[in-house]
Amino acid sequence: MLDIQPTLNDKQVFDFIHNGYIILESVVAEDFNAECLILPPGHLTDFIQSKPFRQNVLLHPEVSGVARSLLGADFTVPTSAHNHLFEHPHRGQTLHSDGLSELGYGITHLQCYYYPQAVEIEDGATMIVPGSHQRLVDREAIAHYGNISGQISITVPAGTVAMTHYGIWHKAGPKINHTRRSMIKFSFFRTQPPKRDWVRESDEPPTYQHSGRHHYVTEVESYRDRRRGEHTWNWLCGLTEYQEEYHPARMFMSGIPLSQIQL
Amino acid sequence: MDTKIKNHLSQCRQKLENGQLQAVDLDQLEALLTTSNHRRNQTIMYLYSKSTNMRSPLSGWSIYDPYRDDEPELPSQHPPYRSVLDAVGDGWRILQFPRPENFPFSDIDNNYLAFEFILEKFT
Fold first, then answer.
1. CB-based contact (8 Å) between B104 and chain A?
2. Fewest CB within 10 angstroms: A59, A64, A104, A253, which?
3. How many Å apart are CA A36 and CA A117, to the nearest integer?
4. Domains in chain A, start-ordered, CATH in brackets?
5. ipTM
6. B94 touches chain A (CB under 8 A)
7. Please, what's the b/e burial string for A156-177 (b: 16 or more CB within 10 A of its CB; e: otherwise)?
8. What pLDDT sits at residue B1?
9. How far apart are CA B110 and CA B44, in angstroms?
10. Taking CB atoms and an 8 Å cutoff, what residues of chain A touch B68?
11. Cβ–Cβ of B48/A216 closer than 8 Å?
12. Do B72 and A147 touch (CB under 8 A)?
């Protein structure tokens, strides 16, 4: 199996549990970004399974290192993706989570956004709500939400990959120009029970450290976030019972285990 | 009530008493009621308060105005008001208060944004 090394330490795993995302800026090489700029909108398969895409994006040491840290060894490597391409002004999407929500406290699915060009806020930057992955909602029932304190517009340099918890609330933000803005979305999945095998400074797992309160969160909600974070941390460390479940999002996205990939 | 409509109604009452009211008077009244200068436009605003107290700070907001241009607007981190009460002070009427029983208490799971006030304003 390809040797993919984890890159996150305990503190960075705490942060991911709390925020639901990590942004890797400018990790993909400029010349490969340029190749991706001409991709058509919509569903992509052949290009995603090509050796260059795997080498430059999916199995880039920083990208796959996060997947390895949060999903364990032999995570699935995407074999399909979707190019969200916007070229004209629009009001933006409504805020939503994708597909069916995840029940439970584990981390089994990372949804990633790759930007082959720089993104400014006027370009219709993807917006996310930090911490919202811990809220189980009907996606159609949050469509009337507008601005939320602490929301983030992902304005980034070319070659950036944002890796998110599948349940995070997000949308394509309002676009006020005609600049071509592409975002290639793909997913990694867990295949093995969790254990604390990311970058460790000690063998003894530290107690979960809660990072405080997101701007929009009420006091009691913050207590719940902390408690939920503790459950997720214990689950990731393999301290609680693990039940393998078929992730509903696999209805939409495909991948093959890392152990079956050859470059 | 709009002054022009009020004056016209007053004239119509006098004509009615004198037996002079005609269909054209009602046509004029209809025109006054339906011209854009006299139509009152409803705007809806959702405010998410950090508690049921109307003085609490806001965590989210959205405004639906059917009469504004449909141009995209960039996102904002700054709520239009400090609180629900602040909005009421600016002429917004509350259509719906958040009822605590609509926010089931759980020791661990969060879900929708609390606490949702729906307000309206006529312009």
1. no
2. A104
3. 9
4. 10-252 (2.60.120.620)
5. 0.91
6. no
7. bebbbbbbbbbbbbbbbbbbbe
8. 65
9. 26
10. none
11. yes
12. no
For residue B116, the one-letter residue type is E
Give the bridge partners for B48, in sequence order: B60, B116
- DSSP letter assigned to residue A4: P
Spatial distance between the Cα atoms of A184 and A28, rounded to a whole number of angstroms: 13
Q: Cβ of B110 and A224 within 8 Å?
A: yes
Q: Is B66 helix (H, G, I), strand (E, B) or coil?
A: coil
First to last CA, chain B: 13
User: Taking the alpha carbons of A223, A228, A231, A235 in that order, is the dihedral positive or negative?
Assistant: negative
Residues of A in contact with B74 (CB under 8 A): 121-122, 173-174, 176
Q: Do B70 and A136 touch (CB under 8 A)?
A: no
Averages of pLDDT over runs of 10 residues in chain A (263 residues) are 96 98 98 97 97 98 98 96 97 87 82 98 98 92 96 98 96 97 96 95 94 94 94 95 69 84 86
If one counts every other C-beta atom within 10 angstroms of the C-beta of residue A5, the result is: 11
Q: What would the two tokens of residue B69 be?
A: 């241009």
Q: Cβ(A121)–Cβ(B74) under 8 Å?
A: yes
Tokens describing residue B118: 């729906």
Interval A72-109: pLDDT, tens: 999 999 999 999 999 999 999 999 998 665 667 899 99
The Cα of B14 is separated from the nearest Cα of chain A by a number of Å equal to: 49
> What is the separation, in whole angstroms, between the first and last Cα of chain A?
10
CB–CB contact A216 B107 (8 Å): no
Does B34 contact A at CB distance below 8 Å?
Answer: no
Other C-beta atoms closer than 10 Å to the C-beta of A186 total 24
> What is the distance between the alpha carbons of residues A202 and A225, in angstroms, rounded to a whole number?
26
pLDDT tier, B52 (very low <50, low <70, confident <90, very high otherwise): very high
Q: Which residues of A touch B (CB under 8 A)?
A: 89-92, 121-122, 127, 134-137, 141-142, 144-151, 153, 173-176, 215-219, 221, 224-225, 227-228, 231
Instruction: Report phi then psi at B86, rounded to 5.
Output: -60, -40
**Nearest-by-Cβ selection for A148 from B51, B59, B110:** B59
- What are the pLDDT digits (tens) for B60-76? 999 999 888 788 999 99
